[in-house]
Amino acid sequence: MGAIVPGLWGTPQDALSHLIYLFGNQTQLAFGSLNSAINGIPPLIHEKFPCPTKQPCSALIFIEEATEAIGHPNKLQFLQLAQKLAASTAMKENQRFSIAFYGNGIFHKTELQTFNGFNQTLTAFIDSIQTSDSPNAGQTRLAPILTDLRNVINSGAVQNYAILLMGELEKVLDPNQASTLAQTIGKSGANVYVLDQSIGAISNYLWGLLTNFQPNHIINGSSNNFNSFYDTFEQTLISDFNNYNC
Fold first, then answer.
1. CA–CA gap between residue 4 and residue 202 (Å, rounded)
2. What does DSSP say about strands 106-108 and 95-102: parallel, antiparallel, or unpaired?
3. Model's pTM, two decimal places?
4. InterPro entries from the xrefs (predicted)?
5. CA-to-CA distance for 172 and 222, rounded, in angstroms?
6. How far apart are the first and last CA of the chain?
7. Which domains, and CATH codes, for the chain?
């Protein structure tokens, strides 16, 4: 690549013609002035010598039950928790992130994004929950979102998955189908944590299937303590996620 600068002999047009000739008539490599070179050379370098892009390696997925049973405070707090946890990651270029919502169906499916794209999506949902408490379903069906999650895991888009699901089991209308899917996900190798918002004496066996009964992967959410939740998942979920190597 080259550029013409002012001189004593000849004309800029003649100089540019000679420069193009030197470059084998590749006109895109010759610039008639320094200003045009300043604007034209950087994109040309990126075109001719592109930097290798790392393929996605690992995904951090947050899933929220957005229902009346969960309630507005818990929904908002979980999104704020997800935002803070995601900001605690190493933010490597081969990491991906997602936020998904379910209620009587899927409100927002699992979509793997870069950190910046994910953060924009999450901020928009935080604003929506704050202003209109939407989405806010009256019923809870767990199977649709677990089907979506299973499909994402089986897609092979990345090698490693760290997942945090916040939900409750008291109002679930499809426990049998959800249990079958939870067992499949639990045995897939995905690293699943659950923030359990169930109240009362109800079995959390379904959560056990989903987490493959790994110790300390089901956290009781009844304390509603943001700082405690953050400390717990920063030391477990985020630590696991940052340690993934491909």
1. 79
2. antiparallel
3. 0.80
4. vWFA_dom_sf (IPR036465)
5. 18
6. 38
7. 2-48 (no CATH), 58-242 (3.40.50.410)
